[in-house]
Amino acid sequence: MPQNYSSEFKKKLIRLRLEEGRTINSITKEYNISKETLRRWCNEFKEECQTPSLQSPGSVNEAEIMKENLRLRKELEEAKKENLFLKKAAAFFAKEID
After folding, report:
1. What pTM did the predictor assign?
2. Residues 6+ apart with CB under 8 A from 52
3. Mean pLDDT split into 10-residue runs, the chain, 98 residues
4. How far is 84 from 95, CA to CA, in rounded Å?
């Protein structure tokens, strides 16, 4: 018998996948759902988001915003790592000069 999930629950898992970049395996294990179910929900969400975009070209859909947020989070994390490395390098060379 298929289980009914609330739209809030589905959207939460879709957001974990598309916006936070979690793997399908980690989400399905944590929430005890099948991989196929999560894939279907993500695909349905993407299709839902594309319908309004097709009606008004130039508008940004929610799925695209989630993807962009994920990209920006990864970029920020990389910049933070580079910044930390540069701070450590600056401290190292400052000691060498003294």
Report:
1. 0.61
2. 59, 61
3. 82 91 94 94 86 65 85 94 93 82
4. 17
